[in-house]
UniProtKB/TrEMBL annotation:
Boundaries of every Flavin reductase like domain copy: 23-170
Originating organism: Terrabacter lapilli
Domain of life: Bacteria
Record-given protein name: Flavin reductase like domain-containing protein
Length: 172
């Protein structure tokens, strides 16, 4: 038996989307976007986003067009954007849909309901945001959303969970 270092089903180099490859090399702290309340909660792990300062500050994110989060965000107009730490990899995987979460990913940790949506109690740095409905539009394979930052809590500067080249990485 031969063991190979490459993935046997990986797309050949010349068949890969070059823009996607470029994006994968722009590392980002992983965030968890949540919206809704009770059984109507939804969440999504997002690493393609940016925060712009100003009055008000803005958060711009690229969301999956078929995500429950996008539907809930459109319905409620609000969300919590929490930055995840290295200890949150399991939570990130579950909300990304790449790890099973029996009973759903909201069962993996304790939550506090805020006026913007549910917040993982362990999330030390987070923002409550309000969607600008006129800013929602398709961009490539994603939906770009823009929201005003209404509330910010900046906690301890812990080791972030970083997503780069399709993998979660712990950064110090």
């Amino acid at each position: 038996m031969t063991i190979h270092t490459e993935h046997p089903f990986e797309t050949p180099e010349d068949g890969r989307d070059q823009v996607r490859r470029l994006r994968s090399r722009v590392g980002a702290t992983v965030s968890l976007w949540t919206s809704g309340e009770g059984v109507e909660r939804a969440g999504l792990t997002v690493s393609s986003y940016l925060v712009a300062t100003g009055d008000p500050g803005r958060v711009v994110g690229l969301l999956h067009p078929d995500s429950d989060l996008l539907d809930r965000l459109r319905e409620t107009g609000t969300a919590v954007v929490a930055l995840l730490g290295a200890r949150d990899e399991r939570l990130a995987e579950a909300f990304a849909g790449s790890m099973p979460a029996p009973g759903g990913p909201f069962r993996l940790t304790e939550w506090e309901q805020t006026e913007w949506g549910p917040r993982a109690v362990g999330a030390q740095t987070w923002a409550g945001v309000r969607l600008d409905p006129s800013s929602v539009h398709e961009v490539g394979w994603s939906v770009l959303v823009e929201a005003s930052v209404e509330h910010v809590v900046v906690g301890a500067d812990e080791a972030p969970l970083v997503h780069r080249r399709g993998r979660y990485q712990r950064s110090t």
